[in-house]
Structures are given as structure tokens and as C-alpha cells.
Specification:
Elements (H helix, E strand, L loop, with lengths): L1 H15 L1 H20 L1 H9 L4 H6 L5 H4 L2 H9 L10 H21 L7 H29 L5 H30 L1 H8 L4 H10 L14 H16 L4 H10 L2 H7 L2 H7 L4 H30 L1 H14 L2 H9 L3 H28 L6 H42 L2 H12 L2 H10 L2
Helix pairs in contact: 2-3, 2-8, 2-9, 2-11, 3-15, 6-20, 7-8, 7-10, 7-11, 8-20, 9-10, 9-16, 9-19, 13-20, 13-21, 14-20, 16-17, 16-19, 17-19, 17-21, 18-19, 18-20
Amino acid sequence: MSTANNSLWRAVHPYLEKESLAALFVGISSGFPYAMIGATLTTRLAQDGIEKKTITAFTLAFLVYNLKFLWAWIVDSVRLPVLGRLGQRVSWLILAGILVIAAVVNLALTDPKASIEATVIAAILVGVAGATYDIVIDAYRIEILKPYQLGVGSGMSQYGWRIGSAAAGAVALIVAERAGWTQAYLVCAAFALPAMVAGLVVGEPARHVFANKAGGLSAVLSSITGPFAEFMRRDNAWLILLFILVHKIGDTLANLTFRLLFNDLGFSNDEIATYDVGVGFWAYLVGIFIGGVLYVRMGLKRSVLIALLLMGVSNLSFALLAQAGHSNYGMAAAIGFENIASGFGGVVVVAFFSALCNLQFTAAQYALISACASVVGRFVTGTTAGAMIDSIGYVNFYLLTTLLAIPGIVLFWLMARHGIVDRALEANNSQ
């Protein structure tokens, strides 16, 4: 019994360490702004009778996340007055959290039916604030985790992200059904608080390297270009960057249109909250658990390759749902498969991307990598997805998103087979 208890404790203990718990809490706050301008806003606009082309164009607000590397250097290099006494990362967590709350409250007070332009501006402001919060949160997570905690910490961060996005999405739907969208968004603004609290309780990361920059225009330009230049000096950096750009096109394109499908199939807010948010939440947690286990047992390369395959194939389930029509069981199955694949991929792919970051440029480099990971899919969604769905229908659209996953799978397989992945990780770890 004692041996069994010791084994159980060794298995559970890494998840209870303060760094892992901090990764969970910052993940919660990272996930909710995405939901506010993603699935939740899509549902709100669809129920307000806004046409598909306009709704999918709102996904361009996510492109702000893809531009965050342009100001990520500020988070690395600029000390905040007064708040800076709390530490570089913690002070920025507090400031960014306040900005997110203000932006979500502003979006709550807009009326898409009265002014679609004001809603666009409000959504972009949430994107800017949320992207800034992500910059700080990602840097804090990477730096607070010890090297041996990277796999567990990435998993806990993904747990948190899903809790934040799913809980905020479900709360918004439930409150909106009963009290309206304004009240729903006001309530959800509170999801910015967990990361702020985690930063205050746990404190500054021990592994943080402050990039102290001298003043002047040249120093500013160096702060912006330095992280990118350092990354591109690595062997086969262009090939790794190409993989980052293409690996998630199909997955992003599909995910940003699910709520349109559900609305057109006649699902109610309560059904969406139950099956999309509820079933999706638990399925995502299962996927994260599987990802954490397989990451340890199979290693990074094989687990990432399996994740890419699952994320691609999962889009087929929505083609089947579109063909079947309004079916709660069909929706639960499609959402379940999709979220297991996404949870699995979230752990192993995030761990891979985190390991690529140089600790001198943590915020800027992870901002660059995460921005590149979704920029193509978000741009295509915002500019063409609505028209594509109207032209070829949902079934063919989701079949196309499955095919778009193939280039990323093939590219990673070639990189792994020829040792490029190993060399990239070894070069960064030696710095």
C-alpha cells in the first residue's frame, strides 16, 4: 500500500507544484478574451441577424493576435512606473489584466444592430488587450516553469485555457439567454482576474532574464528585430518557420466557423452551451491528459506528429454533422473528437514551441511563434470563409479544411526524419 501511495504521489505531485498551478491560473485568463471575440461574438452576431460575410470578417480582429510580436518587446524591455516594483512580469500581468477588463466592458456596451462599426472597433480593442495579456502570460508561464516541468506546465496551461474559454463561453450563453448580451459580457470580464491573482501570489519567475535596453531609436529597432534575427540565425530556421505558418491553417479555418454551422442547423443557446461548451470542455481535458501521458512516453516528435494527424482528421466530423443536420448526438460526437484532438495538440505543440524560445527573448519570440501559427488561417477565414460556405456548402468546406492539414503533417514528418527538430531544440537549449 505504501509503495502504491508513493507512486500515486509521484504521479500527482508535479501537478500540485506552485509553478504548475500558476500555469493553470494564467491559462484561464488567457482563454477567455479569445472566447469573447470568437465563438461567443459569432453567436451574438448570428442571433442579431448579421449576414455570414460580415460575421466571418470579424475573425480579422484575431489578426491583432498575429501582430503582437510588434509590441512584445515592450513587455520584455520596459519597466512600468509604480507597478514595476512588483517585478517585470507581475506588473505587466496587472496592467494587461486591467486593459482586458476595460475592453470587454466596452464590448458589452456596444449594440451590433445599432452600429456594426462600433462593434468592430470594440472587438479589435478586446483583441489588442487580449493579445497583450497573452504576451505577458506566455512569457510568465515559460519562465516560471523549471525545465522538468515543461510538459506538465504546458498541459496545465492548456487546462486553464480551456477552462477560461469554455467557462466564459458557457456563462455568456446562459446569461445572454436570460438577461441579454450586455450583462453576459460584463459578468465574463471577471475571468481576467485569475492570472493577476496568480502573479501576485507566486511572484516573479526565477528564470526571468531582463532585457535591459538603452534608450534611442536604434535600441527600439533592435528590441523589435533582435528576437526575430536570433531565431532566423538558427540552422533550418526558415523551414521551422514554414511549418509554424502552415501546420494549423485547416484547423483554424474550421474552428472559427463552427458557431455559424450550429446556428444554421438550428441549435439553441442552451444546446450549444451543453454540447459545444460542456461536452467540448470535458473532451478537451481528456485530450490534454492523453497528450501529457503520450508526450512523456513517446517523446516530442512522435507525439506532435500524432497530434497533427488527429487535428486534421477531426474536421471530417463536422462535415458529417453538416450532412446529418440537427442532431444533439452528432454535435456531441463531433465536438468530442475535435476537442480531444485539440487538447492533445495543445499540450505537445505548445511544449515544442515553448522549447524553441530563447529566454532572453521569451515574450517576443513566443509572441512571434504563436502569431505565425494562426495568421494564415485567420486571414483566410476573415476574407473568404463566409463566401466559401455560401458557395460550396458546409460539407465541402470542412472536407477542404481536412485537406489543408496535409502540408503541415508532411513537413513535420520530414523535419523529424532528417533531424531538423532535434538540432533546433539542441541549439536553443545550449544558449
